[in-house]
Amino acid sequence: MDEQEKLLEECMRNVKQESFQMKRCMDKDRLMDAIKHASTILMELRTSSLTPKNYYELFMGVCAELNHLQIFMLDEFAKGNRLTELYELVQYASNIIPRLYLLVTVGVVFIKSNENSRKDIMKDLVEMCRGVQHPLRGLFLRNYLLQETKHVLPDVADAPLASSDNGETNSVLTQSGTVFDSVDFILANFAEMNKLWVRMQHQGHSRDKVRRERERQELRLLVGTNLVRLSQLESIDIEKYSKHVLPGVLEQTVSCRDAIAQEYLMECVIQVFPDEFHLETLSTLLKACSELQPGLPPSLTLSPSFPLEDIVALEVALVNLALKCYPDRTDLVDQVLQNVDVIFQKQHVDEVPGDSAVCKELAKLLKIPLDHYQDILTVLQLPNYGKILAYLNFKPRKEISLYVAHNIVDHCTIISQQEQVEALLVMLTPLIEDHASFPVDPTDEEFVEEQTVVGKLIHFLKAEELDQQYLILGIARKFFGNGGIHRVCYTLPTILFAAYDLAYSYYLSEAEDPKWSKKCQKIFQFCHQTISVLAKLELFEVSVRLFLQGALAVSRTPFENNEQVAYEYMTQAFSIYEEEISDSKLQMMCVLLVIGTLEKIECFTEENHEPLRTQCALAAAKLLKKPDQCRALVAAANVFWSGKVRGGDAELRDTKRVMDCLKKALRVASQCMDNLVKIQLYVEVVDAYSLFQLRGVDQVTDETIVQMLQKIQEELPTLDVSDESVHINKYFQNSLDQLKKTKPELPF
Amino acid sequence: MNFLGFGQNADIEITLDDADKRKTAEIRVEENRKEKLLLYYDGEGVSGKIDIKLKKSGAKLEHHGIKVEFIGQIELYYDRGNHLEFTSLVKELAGPGDLTQSCSFTFDFPQVEKPYESYTGNNVKLRYFIRVVIARRMSDIVREQEIIVHTLSSYPDVNNSIKMEVGIEDCLHIEFEYNKSKYHLKDIIVGKIYFLLVRIKIKHMELAIIKRELSGSTPSLFQDSETIAKFEIMDGAPVKGESIPIRLFLAGYDIAPTMKDINKKFSVRYFLNLVLVDEEERRYFKQQEIILWRKGEKLRKGQPPPVTNAMQTYTATSTVRADPQEDASDEED
């Protein structure tokens, strides 16, 4: 058993002994003697040797005994023994602790027996308790006062008007008090208790600081009870709260200049009073918050860092409160953010370290407005949001950015103002640009997902005005252009598609905007530059695709000079293909894309179309692998047949060139060494033949087709049985079936 | 006196009028013993009956006269045999002669002047008594009956509060105020202590009532101090700006009115001593004399004083100054 337990046990033993004596006196109706024993019991509470925890134990024991005394006195009063001098008699006690505990006990008995003097007694008790300046003993004494008066506090709003014939009613009420007296009483008690509580911090050795702070935390409930009591007064309405209750509480909270107290008390205020009250007094609350202790006094630099996270946590609570009560008042939320900013500045915080508690709280704080408004536009209206975001270091900042991006995409928030776009993109910088100390792994799934979301987000940057939209795209392009090779492939293409759309929109509204044509030129120039950036970064495949897509977009947007532009796009695609793409698979794919694109473009005159289509056929024939050549040639044939030139509605229908392509394809197929591949190609080519025949290429005769079919039939059995051969057989059979439907006269 | 077992002797009994109705008061007769006696005021008559009972029936009591006296006297303990009588009234009850049987006399001292209050101190005693003496040749038969006298005063015309700032430079500055300088014996001392500067670790603060008794005259001057009351008014260490209430009920203590230069023999004065004790048990104190006086009791019947009487607080006449450090203390203890 340690020293403390021994001490406590001894105190409790003394209490028990005296309590026995006290009860004997009560049995014999000797009140004064009983009070004397009670006074002796109370002497135990004068001790300085117990820890707060043990003092509390002792206090509870003593309170139980005082309760017996109180009941006994109440009985005496009920019997008609009016012991008016009792209030004086207990004050003869020469030691202050027993004296004041007894005074409180008797005072409460008086109040309970006769409410007339209630107001005076309350005032007297709370004032007399000043005599105990020792923090621990004072806190408990005042706690006793608060606890004993719990059910006797006046809780009526005002004294009713004096009745006409006499003023007695009124004077009785004046003496028994109104809720204002209760408020004054509790506020006075609260202020004194808080002072005592704060004072604990500054007594004793600085090496005991940690222990002291722990003890203070243990005792905080005693102080908070005052606020609870205030909140329990039913006749306090919003007006009384904002005029009489809150100012007093805040004044004390701010002026005590103690971080632990401020944090706890603000939390208390917010928790114990109803939200409607906070709603009405929000600006007062926020103002008080801004006046809270920014940090430790300079003389205490040795102590561990100030719990910023708690301040921020407090602000989190405040923001929640503000949003709950006043969903439309963004200024209030911003005010809170500003408070944080001010606090950080005062503390010279430049960057909050990641993984710290402050960082977590801050992230929480920043997510609240997003979650609440579900609308980034509102968040963008908070001038201080960005400032706070900037305190976070890269990782958490990125996390918030991503949260923002998801928020926009999930809620389809359209961002239509230039300034908003700019602000947003600044906010999203961690997603847009590389950070020196956080290298990007382009294969990382998270990264891919993140950039995909960013890409999606671009679609939501959409002005109502086309000119505006152009500017927005310019801004986006500027921001995303800095993204580096791993990001631009996700972002710039999206911008380009948006730009292509924009050009088309100008065309659709050509009647309204005489300058639309010039603007389209400008857009495509912008796109050209943008794609070139990608090409410079050696993102060739995507560049080719984008150029081709651009050519298509140009083609369907008949602005002035669009043919040249489209031609430029096509040639760019060609040249990148020719100069930069070496992988044969990619080459094959590109050729097919080019061919497909050209077939769809209708803006070229013969002069430009001819070299392009020839180039297609050439490129097809120049592919490395025979099967690729064969298939590309078949595809190229389409350009010669269904391609269109400007002015004419009709397709080219260049039978000769179609036949050249098809024949060449057949020839290439026959050159294949691998039977399997060769027959596969044959089947494909014969398909093409029959298709073109159907489309009207009269040089394709049934005879040719039948010959080819026979040839395939001969060759098929030579194939070894394998998955592939089964597949080819099936393919061939399908082709035949198809053919039979259109040409039932064929002998197959 | 009964030499050789013969001769007559007598018991004297003094019965004061209205003994059963008159108020009584207590007075200390020995160190720890109090006696309850009838109470008289200045100017009141003292009357009564004297019964003399002969112890032997049939024998006569020869005497040189019977008298009754009213005496007020001061006894200085260092000079036991030499009592100073400041009041002495005598009435002859019978001339010299013989008493043959028990007899009774009545007596009446009308409107007796009783200028001082009865007092039992450590070095001096002031008392009043009735003395019946049957004078005889050999030894007188004497009987004394003491009474108590209380002197009443009227409300003092001037009764200023006591207010003072004291301190030890750069260490402790306080300002204290007591609501009055003159208190009646059932009065309440109400006041406040303001702490203007606190740089010492105060443990507690108490208010003491000190009685100072000065008796005799040079060269035999005796001074005696006694702490009548020790009343803790503060527990723990206050900080600058605190004000601590004082409320001390005098009714709870054994005190008497201040007596100044009573018959050039003694004085009894009272002081309020404010004491601050620091953690090293050093005591800082300041004494102020207060005048105590006795107020005539006029109890309204059936109406006890309201509770608020026991709640008097001192309404400050001064407030704590903004920067107390600036005014250097000129009064130190």
TrEMBL record, chain A:
UniProt keyword terms in alphabetical order:
Membrane, Protein transport, Transport
Q: Main localisation, per the record?
A: membrane
Q: Which GO terms describe its biological process?
A: intracellular protein transport; retrograde transport, endosome to Golgi
Record InterPro entries: Vps35, Vps35_C
Which GO CC annotations does the UniProt entry carry?
Answer: cytosol; late endosome; retromer, cargo-selective complex
- Membrane protein topology class: Peripheral membrane protein
Where is the protein situated, by its record's location annotation?
A: Membrane
| Described function | Plays a role in vesicular protein sorting.
What is the similarity comment for this entry?
Answer: Belongs to the VPS35 family.
Know the name of this protein? Vacuolar protein sorting-associated protein 35
Q: What organism does this protein naturally occur in? A: Hypsibius exemplaris
Q: What is the organism lineage in this UniProt record?
A: Eukaryota, Metazoa, Ecdysozoa, Tardigrada, Eutardigrada
UniProtKB/TrEMBL annotation, chain B:
Chain residue ranges for the region called Disordered: 300-333
Q: Which Pfam families match?
A: Vps26 (PF03643)
Q: Identify the keywords attached in UniProt to this record, alphabetized.
A: Protein transport, Transport
**Could you name the domain of life of the organism this protein comes from?**
Eukaryota
Q: What GO biological process terms are annotated to this protein in UniProt?
A: intracellular protein transport
Residue ranges annotated as compositionally biased, kind Polar residues, are 309-320
Protein family (similarity comment):
Belongs to the VPS26 family.
Which protein is depicted? Vacuolar protein sorting-associated protein 26
Q: Which organism is it from?
A: Hypsibius exemplaris (Freshwater tardigrade)
